[in-house]
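Review form for a predicted model. The reviewer records the input and the model, then writes brief findings.
Reviewer: anonymous (R2)
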Amino acid sequence: MTRRQLSRYRWFGLDFSGDQRQWGPGRSKSIVWIAEAEGEPSRLVLRDVRRVQELPGVECRAFDRLVAFLNAEDYDAAGIDAPFSVPARFVPDPGHAALLSRVSSMHRPANHRFPDRLSFFHGVTGHDSPLDPPHPLRRTEELWQGRGSERLNVRSTLWTRERGGAAMTSACLMLLSRLHVGIWPWASSETRPLVVEAFPAAQLKQWALPFERYSNEKDPAGEQRQHIVHRCSRNRKVKGIYRFFVCPSKSKRQTQERRRCQDKGIDCSHQGQGRATSVNRWRSDPFNYPAAARTEFPVLGNV
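Model under review:
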Protein backbone atom coordinates (compact mmCIF):
# COMPACT_ATOMS: atom_id res chain seq x y z
CA MET A 1 0.00 0.00 0.00
CA THR A 2 1.40 3.39 -0.98
CA ARG A 3 1.79 6.44 1.20
CA ARG A 4 -0.96 8.14 -0.82
CA GLN A 5 -3.40 5.30 -0.03
CA LEU A 6 -2.53 5.68 3.62
CA SER A 7 -3.08 9.45 3.39
CA ARG A 8 0.44 9.94 4.70
CA TYR A 9 2.81 12.38 3.08
CA ARG A 10 6.51 13.17 3.20
CA TRP A 11 7.86 16.58 2.20
CA PHE A 12 11.23 18.30 2.09
CA GLY A 13 11.88 22.03 2.29
CA LEU A 14 15.24 23.33 1.08
CA ASP A 15 16.85 26.67 1.86
CA PHE A 16 19.24 27.25 -1.04
CA SER A 17 22.38 29.22 -1.95
CA GLY A 18 24.24 30.30 -5.08
CA ASP A 19 27.49 30.71 -3.14
CA GLN A 20 29.96 27.93 -3.97
CA ARG A 21 31.48 28.24 -0.49
CA GLN A 22 28.22 27.26 1.22
CA TRP A 23 28.43 23.81 -0.39
CA GLY A 24 31.98 23.06 0.74
CA PRO A 25 32.56 19.84 2.73
CA GLY A 26 34.08 21.69 5.68
CA ARG A 27 31.43 24.42 5.86
CA SER A 28 30.22 23.98 9.44
CA LYS A 29 28.06 27.12 9.27
CA SER A 30 26.50 26.58 5.86
CA ILE A 31 23.22 28.39 5.28
CA VAL A 32 21.88 25.58 3.08
CA TRP A 33 19.36 23.63 5.16
CA ILE A 34 16.95 20.81 4.40
CA ALA A 35 13.87 20.13 6.52
CA GLU A 36 11.81 16.95 6.42
CA ALA A 37 8.16 16.79 7.43
CA GLU A 38 5.65 13.94 7.49
CA GLY A 39 1.97 13.70 8.20
CA GLU A 40 -1.54 14.07 6.89
CA PRO A 41 -2.64 16.90 4.60
CA SER A 42 -4.08 18.79 7.58
CA ARG A 43 -1.10 18.44 9.92
CA LEU A 44 2.66 18.22 9.48
CA VAL A 45 5.20 16.93 11.97
CA LEU A 46 8.87 17.82 11.76
CA ARG A 47 11.12 14.78 11.42
CA ASP A 48 14.50 16.30 10.72
CA VAL A 49 16.34 19.56 10.03
CA ARG A 50 19.97 19.46 8.96
CA ARG A 51 22.58 21.20 6.85
CA VAL A 52 23.22 19.64 3.45
CA GLN A 53 26.72 18.71 4.63
CA GLU A 54 25.02 16.29 7.05
CA LEU A 55 23.17 14.37 4.35
CA PRO A 56 24.17 10.71 4.01
CA GLY A 57 26.40 9.63 1.16
CA VAL A 58 29.95 9.05 0.02
CA GLU A 59 30.10 12.15 -2.18
CA CYS A 60 32.57 14.73 -0.92
CA ARG A 61 30.65 17.80 -2.06
CA ALA A 62 27.35 18.63 -0.40
CA PHE A 63 25.85 19.59 -3.76
CA ASP A 64 26.48 16.06 -5.05
CA ARG A 65 25.02 14.58 -1.87
CA LEU A 66 21.86 16.62 -2.32
CA VAL A 67 21.49 15.42 -5.92
CA ALA A 68 21.87 11.79 -4.82
CA PHE A 69 19.52 12.29 -1.88
CA LEU A 70 16.66 13.80 -3.91
CA ASN A 71 17.04 11.14 -6.60
CA ALA A 72 17.06 8.20 -4.16
CA GLU A 73 14.58 9.13 -1.44
CA ASP A 74 10.89 8.24 -1.34
CA TYR A 75 8.90 11.46 -0.89
CA ASP A 76 5.94 13.35 -2.29
CA ALA A 77 7.37 16.79 -2.94
CA ALA A 78 10.33 19.03 -2.17
CA GLY A 79 9.97 22.81 -2.06
CA ILE A 80 13.19 24.58 -3.09
CA ASP A 81 13.69 28.26 -2.30
CA ALA A 82 15.39 29.14 -5.60
CA PRO A 83 14.33 30.05 -9.18
CA PHE A 84 13.47 27.20 -11.52
CA SER A 85 13.75 29.24 -14.73
CA VAL A 86 14.54 32.61 -16.33
CA PRO A 87 12.38 35.17 -18.19
CA ALA A 88 10.60 33.55 -21.12
CA ARG A 89 12.50 35.44 -23.83
CA PHE A 90 15.74 33.80 -22.68
CA VAL A 91 14.43 30.23 -22.59
CA PRO A 92 15.76 28.41 -25.69
CA ASP A 93 13.56 26.30 -27.93
CA PRO A 94 11.98 23.89 -27.41
CA GLY A 95 11.59 24.91 -23.76
CA HIS A 96 12.68 24.32 -20.18
CA ALA A 97 14.48 21.03 -20.86
CA ALA A 98 16.70 22.85 -23.37
CA LEU A 99 17.49 25.51 -20.76
CA LEU A 100 18.59 22.84 -18.27
CA SER A 101 20.71 21.19 -20.94
CA ARG A 102 22.38 24.49 -21.79
CA VAL A 103 23.21 25.25 -18.15
CA SER A 104 24.57 21.76 -17.52
CA SER A 105 26.99 22.14 -20.47
CA MET A 106 28.34 25.56 -19.43
CA HIS A 107 32.01 25.84 -18.56
CA ARG A 108 32.94 25.84 -14.88
CA PRO A 109 36.11 25.16 -12.86
CA ALA A 110 36.65 21.54 -11.88
CA ASN A 111 35.92 22.20 -8.22
CA HIS A 112 32.71 24.15 -8.92
CA ARG A 113 29.39 22.37 -9.06
CA PHE A 114 27.58 25.07 -11.08
CA PRO A 115 28.57 28.00 -13.35
CA ASP A 116 29.44 31.30 -11.70
CA ARG A 117 27.02 34.20 -12.10
CA LEU A 118 28.84 35.84 -15.04
CA SER A 119 29.28 32.60 -16.99
CA PHE A 120 25.64 31.79 -16.38
CA PHE A 121 24.50 35.25 -17.52
CA HIS A 122 26.53 35.05 -20.74
CA GLY A 123 25.48 31.47 -21.44
CA VAL A 124 21.78 32.24 -21.06
CA THR A 125 21.56 35.70 -22.64
CA GLY A 126 24.47 35.72 -25.09
CA HIS A 127 25.46 39.14 -23.73
CA ASP A 128 28.48 40.36 -21.81
CA SER A 129 27.05 43.78 -20.94
CA PRO A 130 23.98 44.61 -18.80
CA LEU A 131 20.56 44.06 -20.30
CA ASP A 132 17.88 46.68 -20.89
CA PRO A 133 16.16 46.66 -18.48
CA PRO A 134 19.17 45.56 -16.40
CA HIS A 135 17.26 43.19 -14.14
CA PRO A 136 14.40 41.57 -16.12
CA LEU A 137 11.76 39.73 -14.12
CA ARG A 138 9.79 36.64 -14.89
CA ARG A 139 6.03 37.11 -15.20
CA THR A 140 5.53 35.34 -11.89
CA GLU A 141 7.86 37.79 -10.08
CA GLU A 142 6.06 40.75 -11.63
CA LEU A 143 2.76 39.38 -10.38
CA TRP A 144 4.02 38.74 -6.85
CA GLN A 145 5.67 42.14 -6.75
CA GLY A 146 2.40 43.87 -7.57
CA ARG A 147 0.14 41.68 -5.46
CA GLY A 148 -1.43 43.57 -2.57
CA SER A 149 -0.72 47.02 -1.19
CA GLU A 150 2.65 46.09 0.38
CA ARG A 151 5.48 45.65 -2.09
CA LEU A 152 7.17 42.24 -2.05
CA ASN A 153 10.91 42.25 -2.69
CA VAL A 154 11.88 40.09 -5.67
CA ARG A 155 15.20 39.50 -7.44
CA SER A 156 15.91 39.16 -11.12
CA THR A 157 17.20 35.73 -12.08
CA LEU A 158 19.66 37.45 -14.46
CA TRP A 159 20.94 40.23 -12.20
CA THR A 160 24.64 39.56 -11.65
CA ARG A 161 25.54 42.20 -9.08
CA GLU A 162 25.34 42.08 -5.29
CA ARG A 163 22.13 40.47 -4.02
CA GLY A 164 21.14 39.61 -7.58
CA GLY A 165 19.57 36.28 -8.47
CA ALA A 166 21.90 34.97 -11.21
CA ALA A 167 24.13 32.89 -8.93
CA MET A 168 21.18 31.30 -7.15
CA THR A 169 19.44 30.55 -10.45
CA SER A 170 22.59 28.99 -11.89
CA ALA A 171 22.94 26.67 -8.90
CA CYS A 172 19.29 25.65 -8.93
CA LEU A 173 19.12 24.97 -12.67
CA MET A 174 22.24 22.82 -12.41
CA LEU A 175 20.59 20.88 -9.60
CA LEU A 176 17.41 20.39 -11.66
CA SER A 177 19.44 19.20 -14.65
CA ARG A 178 20.82 16.35 -12.54
CA LEU A 179 17.54 15.24 -10.97
CA HIS A 180 15.50 12.28 -12.20
CA VAL A 181 12.26 13.37 -10.56
CA GLY A 182 9.28 15.41 -11.74
CA ILE A 183 9.73 19.19 -12.00
CA TRP A 184 6.46 21.07 -11.67
CA PRO A 185 4.75 22.41 -13.77
CA TRP A 186 6.55 20.63 -16.60
CA ALA A 187 5.55 17.39 -14.88
CA SER A 188 2.01 16.72 -13.71
CA SER A 189 1.14 17.68 -10.13
CA GLU A 190 0.35 13.99 -9.58
CA THR A 191 3.96 12.97 -10.29
CA ARG A 192 5.89 11.53 -7.35
CA PRO A 193 8.51 12.54 -6.35
CA LEU A 194 8.04 16.15 -7.41
CA VAL A 195 10.12 19.29 -6.90
CA VAL A 196 8.49 22.73 -6.87
CA GLU A 197 9.78 26.28 -6.55
CA ALA A 198 9.19 27.87 -3.15
CA PHE A 199 9.02 31.54 -2.16
CA PRO A 200 8.95 31.83 1.67
CA ALA A 201 8.39 35.59 1.72
CA ALA A 202 5.34 35.23 -0.52
CA GLN A 203 4.01 32.43 1.68
CA LEU A 204 4.35 34.55 4.80
CA LYS A 205 2.65 37.45 3.06
CA GLN A 206 -0.24 35.18 2.04
CA TRP A 207 -0.65 34.27 5.70
CA ALA A 208 -0.60 37.98 6.68
CA LEU A 209 2.64 37.43 8.62
CA PRO A 210 5.85 39.52 8.60
CA PHE A 211 7.56 38.79 5.28
CA GLU A 212 10.58 41.12 5.41
CA ARG A 213 13.71 41.29 7.57
CA TYR A 214 13.07 38.05 9.44
CA SER A 215 15.97 35.83 8.35
CA ASN A 216 19.14 37.16 10.00
CA GLU A 217 20.39 36.99 13.58
CA LYS A 218 19.98 40.66 14.49
CA ASP A 219 17.01 42.72 15.61
CA PRO A 220 14.41 43.34 14.35
CA ALA A 221 14.66 39.92 12.69
CA GLY A 222 14.44 38.14 16.06
CA GLU A 223 11.28 40.04 16.95
CA GLN A 224 9.81 39.28 13.55
CA ARG A 225 10.42 35.57 14.03
CA GLN A 226 8.90 35.68 17.50
CA HIS A 227 5.77 37.20 16.00
CA ILE A 228 5.66 34.57 13.23
CA VAL A 229 6.09 31.80 15.82
CA HIS A 230 3.33 33.20 18.00
CA ARG A 231 0.86 33.48 15.14
CA CYS A 232 1.65 30.05 13.67
CA SER A 233 1.54 28.35 17.07
CA ARG A 234 -2.09 29.43 17.40
CA ASN A 235 -2.91 27.41 14.30
CA ARG A 236 -3.51 23.79 15.28
CA LYS A 237 -2.58 22.59 11.82
CA VAL A 238 0.80 24.33 12.04
CA LYS A 239 1.93 23.35 15.51
CA GLY A 240 4.99 25.58 15.80
CA ILE A 241 8.24 26.69 14.20
CA TYR A 242 10.22 27.87 17.22
CA ARG A 243 13.59 26.33 16.62
CA PHE A 244 13.96 27.10 12.90
CA PHE A 245 12.93 30.75 13.12
CA VAL A 246 14.04 31.83 16.59
CA CYS A 247 17.30 29.95 17.09
CA PRO A 248 19.20 29.84 13.78
CA SER A 249 22.61 29.80 15.51
CA LYS A 250 24.46 28.46 18.57
CA SER A 251 24.63 24.70 17.99
CA LYS A 252 23.98 23.59 21.58
CA ARG A 253 20.85 25.68 21.86
CA GLN A 254 19.83 24.53 18.39
CA THR A 255 20.03 20.90 19.40
CA GLN A 256 18.00 21.49 22.56
CA GLU A 257 15.25 23.31 20.69
CA ARG A 258 15.26 20.75 17.88
CA ARG A 259 14.72 17.93 20.36
CA ARG A 260 12.03 19.92 22.13
CA CYS A 261 10.16 20.40 18.86
CA GLN A 262 10.48 16.76 17.87
CA ASP A 263 9.41 15.52 21.31
CA LYS A 264 6.24 17.59 21.13
CA GLY A 265 5.58 16.65 17.50
CA ILE A 266 5.49 20.23 16.28
CA ASP A 267 6.34 21.47 12.84
CA CYS A 268 9.08 23.99 12.09
CA SER A 269 9.44 23.25 8.41
CA HIS A 270 6.42 24.91 6.79
CA GLN A 271 8.64 27.65 5.38
CA GLY A 272 9.69 25.46 2.47
CA GLN A 273 6.71 23.12 2.50
CA GLY A 274 3.85 25.55 1.94
CA ARG A 275 4.46 25.70 -1.76
CA ALA A 276 4.70 21.93 -2.09
CA THR A 277 1.26 21.43 -0.53
CA SER A 278 -0.37 24.04 -2.74
CA VAL A 279 0.52 22.53 -6.12
CA ASN A 280 -3.03 21.32 -6.72
CA ARG A 281 -4.42 24.78 -5.92
CA TRP A 282 -2.78 26.35 -8.96
CA ARG A 283 -5.91 25.97 -11.06
CA SER A 284 -7.83 28.21 -8.66
CA ASP A 285 -5.15 30.90 -8.48
CA PRO A 286 -6.59 34.21 -9.79
CA PHE A 287 -3.16 34.88 -11.31
CA ASN A 288 -3.40 31.85 -13.58
CA TYR A 289 -1.28 32.36 -16.70
CA PRO A 290 -0.66 28.97 -18.37
CA ALA A 291 1.48 30.19 -21.27
CA ALA A 292 4.02 32.00 -19.11
CA ALA A 293 3.87 29.33 -16.43
CA ARG A 294 4.90 26.58 -18.83
CA THR A 295 7.98 28.57 -19.84
CA GLU A 296 9.13 30.59 -16.85
CA PHE A 297 7.69 28.72 -13.86
CA PRO A 298 5.06 30.07 -11.44
CA VAL A 299 6.13 30.69 -7.85
CA LEU A 300 3.42 29.43 -5.53
CA GLY A 301 1.88 30.68 -2.36
CA ASN A 302 -1.24 29.39 -0.66
CA VAL A 303 -4.35 31.23 -1.84
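Findings: The first helix runs from residue 62 to 72.
Further findings: Residues 146 and 152 are 7 Å apart (CA to CA).
Recommendation: see findings above.
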